[in-house]
């Protein structure tokens, strides 16, 4: 029985998927609230697409259970699940018009032709393409084709909408546009959506929650802000924030704030643990300020690369902490290659990410 209150919720309970002897997804559990957009984010091969395909029923689960809307769907075929998927490659039928492509799923479900067409036109109106309904897919731009693919998925009014890297064939400007359109539609229609990407900025921009995957497991689940500001480990800090990972030491802690030393410089960082001693600290590129080196500066470095990008400067700095990647949005003082600089560590943008071996 479907529970209407849970409609659109999704849960993975200790799910494992193997291809032969190799594990593609390793004992993962997570849950998704109805009407939210959740991204599965991670590097190539981490198991995102396999996870999405298991939700769709396109891959069988070896161990564990999957629930959609509270209902156990683990053993159900793709056709028996109330989900639809938008693929990276659009997968439109070239010999059908745009309207026929969108109506296709409804015709297969034996809806009367007129009614299917009407609903297809409604879905095309939602994605702003009603005017192009009689064209063939080859007469559309990449962005328009992907909107047709979204309309084709939406017309089925799925309980969960699945999107597999839907923007990766679009150029940078179109990617931002279609990304924002997908998010607006999801919010407007109150859809539950699961969205696979390997692009951290896309995930931060579009998600209510991000599930970060690494090596077939879940590294962290949280809101974009939680993931960015309080990464659970070194992998998440590096993957999401391009953080510099350095050695540090907790001198004292009150269970909320830890007083840390990083190469002689003191900085207070959020910390809920009790331990003192050696730790690894993630410093985001924006968390390191640069100034003219003087006698009072405790941390000194030398600029080995300075790149002007209009809105920001990007520096590579050689220091006693190792090589650091630094981004400065203040452009009133630009340091050239070879300059000696004082490094100032800012608490916002730094996080303790684990004990040091
Ligand atoms: P990408 O971003 O490159 O698509 P991904 O995170 O989506 O990567 P998956 O495609 O889910 O990763 O793959 C997870 C693991 O399972 C990889 O090691 C991959 O090589 C393996 N794998 C995926 N599909 C198959 C298959 N059909 N047969 C054998 N191994 C597979």
Automatic annotation (TrEMBL):
What Pfam families does the record point to?
A: ABC_tran, TOBE_2
UniProt GO BP:
quaternary ammonium group transport
Keyword presence, ATP-binding: yes
What keywords appear on the UniProt entry? ATP-binding, Cell inner membrane, Cell membrane, Membrane, Nucleotide-binding, Transport
Read off the InterPro entries from this record: AAA+_ATPase, ABC_SmlMolc_Importer, ABC_transporter-like_ATP-bd, ABC_transporter-like_CS, Mo/tungstate-bd_C_term_dom, P-loop_NTPase, Transp-assoc_OB_typ2
According to the UniProt record, one GO cellular component term is:
ATP-binding cassette (ABC) transporter complex
| Keyword ATP-binding assigned | yes
Q: Which residues form the ABC transporter domain?
A: 10-240
GO molecular function list: ATP binding; ATP hydrolysis activity; transmembrane transporter activity
Annotated PROSITE patterns = ABC_TRANSPORTER_1, ABC_TRANSPORTER_2
Under what name is this protein listed? Spermidine/putrescine import ATP-binding protein PotA
State the organism of origin: Paraburkholderia saeva
